Amino acid sequence: MTVNLAAGAAAYAKAAKQLAMPGGNAAVKGTGSGFGDMLKSALTDAIDTQKTGETASLQAATGKADINSVVAAVNNAELTLQTVLAVRDKVVAAYTEIMHMTV
Q1: Distance, CA of 3 to CA of 78 (rounded, Å)
Q2: CA 4, CA 11: separation in Å to the nearest integer?
Q3: How far apart are CA 49 and CA 80, in angstroms?
């Protein structure tokens, strides 16, 4: 499997930019946007990546797209889906562990 380094670098740059903005690290301070907003933003980005992959696949089916861009878009969509599934599995595992704790 190939990893798109440009997409990863862009994600880190976006996160760094949000933290550098005034109030961007509000989750750390305890005010303003928090984990829920960050999660919503990440899921929105994941959905957008999936839609881009679908659009590229449709354009390839009609012969209107370059095969290299289609492969890159589909790879990004696949990598995003794998990341979302891995995060989901970790969240479910953490929830299960918390539910098994004695009070």
Answers
A1: 10
A2: 11
A3: 7
Over residues 53-100, the pLDDT tens digits come to 999 999 999 988 888 988 999 999 999 999 999 999 999 999 999 999
Boundaries of every domain in the chain: 24-99
At position 44, the amino acid (one-letter code) is T
3-state per-residue secondary structure call for the chain: CCCCHHHHHHHHHHHHHHHHCCCCCHHHHCCCCCHHHHHHHHHHHHHHHHHHHHHHHHHHHCCCCCHHHHHHHHHHHHHHHHHHHHHHHHHHHHHHHHHCCCC
CA distances from 48 to 45, 54, 56 (A): 5, 10, 12
C-alpha distances (whole Å) from 49 to each of 1, 21, 39, 81 are 17, 25, 15, 9
**CB within 8 Å of 69: residues ≥ 6 apart:** 56
